[in-house]
Design brief:
Elements: H1 15-23, H2 29-43, E1 59-61, E2 64-72, E3 86-88, E4 95-101, E5 117-123, E6 133-135, H3 136-145, H4 157-175
Parallel strand pairs: 2-4
Antiparallel strand pairs: 1-2, 3-6, 4-5
Length: about 180
């Protein structure tokens, strides 16, 4: 859809007007998660694919089902202290890409600055079993034990994902139920 597409029956409103109104606050948890998915798709050079909505997994890449999860300390509501970093885990996914907006709440925090983002890539079977969430500390421990290079900067996301797939794909596929 083109940004200049008119909204029929209005006095000159366009799709761009809607996008500006609906998505201008990327610090909102829901929109920040969509933005993180955009960053992952962008890094993987997959922006020609539509945003994954209501699919079983966020992404299929190299034949593997990938779930993209986001966390950050900044919330849109007032906080007495920063939110602890953790992510939901989807047990049926083959791989997880955990997106972490690591900036602390401050007037200068800017989710559009990719220096504030880091990513973790982890085969699901390596994650603690029967847990619905994983903390940053636990994720760093798990990745360290598996010798996974973490956390990853945006510009290394594609090559890092391909390395994880090369290393773990056979084991991942053998564990599918």
């Amino acid at each position: 859809m083109h940004p200049n597409t008119p909204l029929l029956g209005t006095d000159g409103l366009t799709v761009q007007d809607f996008w500006t109104w609906a998505y201008s606050d990327i610090n909102n948890n829901v929109r920040r998660a969509i933005f993180a998915e955009f960053l992952v798709f962008s890094a993987l050079e997959l922006l020609t694919l539509p945003q994954p909505a209501w699919k079983q997994f966020d992404l299929e890449y190299a034949g593997l089902n990938v779930e993209i999860k986001t966390s950050g300390s900044i919330q849109v509501w007032e906080q007495a202290k920063p939110t602890p970093i953790s992510w939901g885990v989807k047990p049926k996914a083959d791989l997880h890409i955990f997106c972490w907006y690591r900036e602390a709440p401050s007037p200068t925090a800017n989710v559009l600055n990719l220096e504030g983002w880091r990513f973790f890539i982890c085969p699901t079977y390596i994650l603690p079993q029967h847990k619905q969430r994983i903390s940053l500390k636990s994720l760093e421990t798990v990745c360290g034990k598996a010798s996974l290079a973490q956390p990853i900067h945006y510009d290394r996301l594609k090559v890092s994902l391909e390395r994880v797939i090369d290393r773990y794909q056979d084991e991942i596929l053998s564990r599918r139920t």
